[in-house]
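In this section we walk through a basic example: taking a raw amino acid sequence and producing a predicted 3D structure, encoded as discrete structure tokens. The instruction is simple. Fold the sequence below.
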Amino acid sequence: MASSPGPRRAFLKKVLAAGAALGASGGFPGKVRARTPQATGVTALDHVAIPVSNVDGMVAFYRALGFTVQEGGQIVSIHFGDQKINFHKPALWQTETFTLKASAARPPCGDFCWVWEGSAQALSELLARAGAEVVAEGQRTGGRDGGRATGQSVYTRDPDGNLLEFIRYA
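The resulting token sequence is shown next.
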């Protein structure tokens, strides 16, 4: 005779409720969540979008940096973790009917900072392989710990001239 689904169903409901509570509190390891008073507020950055002019150069550059690149008709996107940056190709952002953009959006218009988990030497080697020239370095305040954590930053520019920062936290 098969066992009754009642106790199993009750157990699963408890597990799912505990998981939902843990997720809402930001308690899952490796997940960064915004601290908001309500459970339905902003919890993460999903993506940003910028116009680009040198599409081929941007694709090659970001691939050389190790990003996953997805190419589409009017948009190229680069992916890192659960986030992405959409690159609007000139055929899209130069079209007068395309209004889902900042009114003054023209390349270069981005200033992006990524957390670098490797060594300074590994970052230097990666940037060299990508042909990226270091334009500045120094200790900076980043976004961790509510904007109070400091790290060592290295700055470069992509083929369109957007500023890229790689920050290493101790």
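Looking at the output, two observations stand out. Residues 5-24 form the longest helix (20 residues). The CA atoms of residues 64 and 130 lie 5 Å apart. In the next section we compare this with other chains.
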